[in-house]
Fold:
Amino acid sequence: MLYDLIIIGAGPAGITAAVYSARKRMKFIVLTGDIGGQAAWSGDIENYTGYQFVTGPELVSKFEEHMRKYSMDFHENEEATGIDKSGDIINVKTRKGEYLAKAAIIASGKVSRELGVPGEKEYKNKGLTYCATCDGPLFSGKDVAVIGGGNSALDACLQMMKIARTVYLINNTDSLGGDAVMREKVQNATNVKIYNGAKVRAVTGDKMVSGITVRTKSGEETIPVQGVFVEVGLVPNSSFAGAVERNDRGEIKVNCRNETNIPGIFAAGDVTDISEKQIIIAAGEGSKAALSAFRYINRSR
Ligand SMILES: Cc1cc2nc3c(=O)[nH]c(=O)nc-3n(C[C@H](O)[C@H](O)[C@H](O)COP(=O)(O)OP(=O)(O)OC[C@H]3O[C@@H](n4cnc5c(N)ncnc54)[C@H](O)[C@@H]3O)c2cc1C
Structure:
């Protein structure tokens, strides 16, 4: 079957692209790992217009409800492993099959960067996690460490300080980054201990995590914790993108119409080189990409 459009990813960008594509009556399929992407991992969202406060999972369920109003082919747990173009036809491969379309939108977002220290792989899902929203409640009343110093780490810290007994925030630079509002809340919390200029050397434990070893200016110490939340940044999900041009951070280069270097392949949201990465921006970019794809498909009519 030849689709008009293949949408890769169902985070805010992909879901919004799907809504716009459905309303343009395009014949399309969505291929995605999950529904919601990073937005589903966000704790408190206070900057999505129309919602003064909403949690990530609540906002994602609203997005999904809106998208499900329309009919489309939707394949969850089916990630793109390759994309190329032959003649005018775009071919997207997954582990389960191959899909053909006149156009494609890559909206595959970002995924957590790994810490790269001994113990990380061993204790993944045994006390070590990359998602405070998903796994935070498992650590009620326990001592945990959040690794990182930017917005993601602050967000995890804000969530965990309401659940855990003590939160150790381990930041490898001299001062915390991120938004001032979030930073102030974390700095004023009585159960958060901030380690600036501290590098994690190892995650330790037996069957489950029991501590982290950190190096500070005053030497090396092991902090006993039962949970470790790794929040050290994100990398774009663009390794499957073949000949689609990327910058040195792996982000797909797009112009203001969401066109990539390959005509017919568009990209939107956090996977691209746009300067700001936010839910409302990704959603807006998804809508723009769908409208550009629609114009591209109908260019010769
Ligand atoms: C902890 C945290 C808190 C945040 N808080 C806020 C906030 O308060 N306000 C705000 O505006 N923004 C916040 N953000 C940022 C915001 O979540 C992102 O900017 C936004 O989700 C990006 O949307 P996206 O659709 O581009 O990508 P993503 O949300 O990353 O979604 C990508 C989608 O692509 C899918 N995918 C990945 N690889 C493939 C593949 N190979 N094939 C098919 N599908 C694939 C994924 O399964 C997912 O569905 C936060 C982010 C984090 C991590």
Observations:
- The radius of gyration is 21 Å.
